[in-house]
Design goal:
The protein has four domains: 1-124 and 286-304, Rossmann fold (3-Layer(aba) Sandwich), CATH 3.40.50.2000; 143-282, Rossmann fold (3-Layer(aba) Sandwich); 306-325 and 354-429, no CATH class; 435-659, Spore Coat Polysaccharide Biosynthesis Protein SpsA, Chain A (Alpha-Beta Complex). The chain has 22 helices and 21 strands. Strands 12, 13, 14, 15, 16, 17, 18, 19, 20 and 21 form a ten-stranded mixed sheet that branches. The two termini are 53 Å apart. The relative contact order is 0.07.
């Protein structure tokens, strides 16, 4: 029965959801499952029961919810709606019974986690032949720019400005009246061949956000546009990786869209090249079958991890139908619950809880779940466990939870202990998550024998330059050559390939062919872990007394290492950094002040490009590998400085920082408040807002 799945999708609802259901059913069958699809949950007995878009399934057929659960089945909800919409709230009210949630959006997954749904996993469409009509239709490109989707005031305003700024450009806007399900029988709805003809007739497919939040509309960008080999211009989004701006599609803010569209209409060969790379990349690296395989394994873990009754009580209270409001501060009172707290057993004289405070334990337990995948060491994990226990003490005291009774107190502490043990197990399993690369297949070198890596294991260099790289093959060669050109020659290079889908390893081997005198180590992450994990892997492998982290899209001036080593050894600092030169979208010299701990607490000003004593890195526990944490550099410097270590600035630009569309300074600014919130949890002394 473990290999059986039943998918339920609303009758008379959005036909696009029916299409996703059909893709799920077909792909499950390819993986050896017996799969069925209908309009009612549990209509067919199966080990896996999937409710596709519960906001439609249970609203259009309210008799299906609530439902009785078969203890032999796993219950999954696939959610697709954006927070802030009435549909998201309707979906939220139905999620309590489900063992796992698959969600299309990184931002909505985070919000679900904050409401206690730590069982939420990422779901994306990737590539499936169902969406691809390129071999089935031949359509002339008669439209310059196509927008397909619902219209609101925001989208209308952007489209109106574009049409005004681009006279003579042929726009086609395909939209359907909202308020009713987008079913197949409606003339204003585009599905299947009708939709494919519209897409294939357009030179540029435009993606605009419904609201101000930068959601990754993967169902549209991947499932519709890239799967048809279309050239995509989209507003910037969160969670699009490994798709890359300028490589597979183009991102542009609304004020820049007109110039971007004009450029690619005037240079169709460039648009065709990007569209071709996006189409090939999606097919090779994001096939839906592979996505679903990984999702099944993660779901088995999430859905079967024991959750103690104390935590289950928190989760049930959080997700009782009608019991949540999106602000998380004044939830509506669920039926059967007193205004003061959850129902009390007969004879229970303990002081009742103000039950909305359950949100806090739910949030911190969710944070622990995230740490299971992100902790760099058992030591770091145990430190966070201690911090979570201290927070729990404050929460319980705040809530009037008396230490004398309680099963609830014991239950949540038991849950923390269970999660702590799970973290330890995962750490033991995943401690060696990278391998050392010694050679590449001959076919990657046109049949020639690949060059050996330049490595001298007997040497003990003074400096180790660590270069983490993800999808930056086009920049990596310049970074490597800048290190090779250093006046100071007592160094080694460690490149950490963070599971890049491009030819990063080939670039490294070609560099070794040209520069056999350079000592170089190539490390390959077994899965994409992020820049913090990659830097830590490089630091761990480093043999030098000093380590210089260099991002693959930046480079060094020839006198950089020599001057920094001189200052480091003369004054015994823990780290040395310099001014930097910015090139690309911004140009100029950035002058940064000398090290001052109080100034550092007021805000970040030291770049990651610095010479660091390896012992100081080790004492600080390395870079924090927390998911959705975008200030690992700043946290690292605060962590080092609060331990008494000091640094020194060299007041001249010894490093170059490339500012481009994918550089970190241009990404994820909308997530900065959340990152700062986490930073202050780790370091309460930080003053910046």
């Amino acid at each position: 029965m473990d290999q059986s799945v039943h998918i339920a999708v609303a009758a008379g609802g959005s036909h696009f959801l029916n299409e996703i259901g059909e893709v799920l059913r077909e792909t499950f069958e390819e993986l050896g499952f017996q799969a069925t699809l209908s309009h009612r949950i549990q209509e067919v007995p199966a080990r896996w029961q999937i409710a596709l878009a519960p906001h439609e399934l249970f609203v259009l057929d309210p008799g299906q919810f609530p439902f009785g659960k078969d203890p032999e089945s796993l219950y999954l909800a696939v959610t697709t709606e954006q927070p802030g919409s009435v549909f998201f709230e309707k979906a939220l009210e139905t999620l309590s019974p489900f063992d796992a949630i698959w969600d299309l959006n990184s931002l909505s997954r985070d919000l679900l986690g904050r409401f206690g749904f730590s069982n939420t996993l990422p779901f994306r469409l990737g590539y499936h032949s169902y969406w691809d009509w390129t071999d089935r239709l031949r359509v002339e490109e008669e439209v310059d720019v196509l927008f397909i989707g619902s219209l609101n005031e925001r989208r209308r305003g952007i489209l109106s400005r574009l049409e005004s700024d681009l006279p003579g450009v042929r726009f086609e806007i395909l939209t359907a009246e909202q308020g009713q399900p987008l079913s197949l029988d409606r003339e204003d709805v585009y599905y299947e061949e009708k939709r494919a003809r519209a897409l294939l007739s357009a030179k540029i497919c435009l993606n605009l956000h419904d609201g101000d939040l930068p959601f990754f509309e993967g169902h549209r960008i991947e499932g519709l546009f890239l799967s048809q080999g279309r050239f995509v211009v989209s507003e910037p989004v969160v969670g699009h990786q490994p798709l890359a701006d300028g490589e597979h599609l183009m991102f542009a803010v609304p004020d820049e869209m007109a110039s971007v569209i004009r450029h690619y209409l005037d240079h169709p060969e460039e648009a065709a090249e990007i569209a071709g790379r996006g189409y090939d990349f999606l097919r090779r690296h994001l096939p839906f079958r592979r996505i679903l395989e990984q999702l099944i394994e993660e779901t088995r873990f999430v859905a079967t991890t024991p959750v103690d009754e104390g935590y289950r009580e928190v989760l049930d209270c959080l997700s009782t139908p009608g019991g949540l409001r999106l602000d998380g501060l004044s939830p509506a009172r669920p039926e059967g619950h007193s205004p003061q707290g959850p129902p009390q057993a007969e004879g229970d004289t303990t002081e009742p809880l103000c039950w909305w405070r359950y949100l806090k334990p739910g949030f911190y337990l969710h944070s622990l779940r995230k740490l299971a995948w992100a902790a760099t060491s058992v030591f770091e994990m145990q430190a966070h466990m201690r911090e979570m226990n201290r927070k729990l003490d404050r929460i319980l005291a705040d809530s009037g939870w008396r230490a004398g009774s309680p099963d609830r107190d014991t239950g949540i502490r038991s849950g923390l202990a269970n999660l702590s043990e799970k973290l330890s197990q995962l750490q033991r399993i995943g401690s060696d998550t990278y391998s050392h690369v010694r050679t590449l297949p001959q076919e990657q070198f046109g049949g020639d024998s690949p060059p050996p890596l330049s490595s001298n294991p007997g040497a003990s260099p003074t400096v180790s330059v660590v270069i983490p790289c993800y999808n930056y093959e086009r920049f990596l060669g310049e970074a490597l050559e800048s290190v090779a050109a250093q006046d100071w020659k007592d160094f080694e290079i460690i490149v950490v390939n963070d599971c890049s889908p491009d030819d990063t390893n080939r670039v490294v081997f070609e560099f070794c062919r040209r520069r056999p005198e350079i000592s170089l180590e190539l490390i390959q992450n077994e899965r994409n872990r992020g820049v913090s994990h990659s830097r830590n892997a490089g630091f761990e492998a480093a043999r030098g007394e000093y380590v210089f982290p260099l991002d693959a899209d930046n480079w060094l001036r020839p006198d950089c290492l020599g001057k920094m080593v001189g200052v480091m050894e003369e004054h015994d600092f823990a780290f040395v950094y310099s001014w930097r030169e910015e090139v690309g979208l911004r140009n100029g010299i950035v002058e940064v002040p000398d090290f001052d701990y109080q100034r550092l607490l007021e805000g970040p000003y030291i770049d990651c490009m610095a010479l660091i004593r390896k012992e100081a890195w080790k004492e600080a526990g390395g870079y924090k590998c927390l998911m959705d944490f975008y200030e690992e550099d700043y946290e690292f410097w605060v962590n080092i400085a609060k331990r008494g270590h000091r640094g020194k600035v060299i007041p001249e630009p010894l490093v170059a920082y490339r500012v481009h569309r994918q550089s970190k300074s241009n990404l994820d600014l909308e997530l900065l408040p959340r990152s700062r919130e986490l930073l202050r949890e780790l370091h309460p002394e930080v003053l910046c807002s």
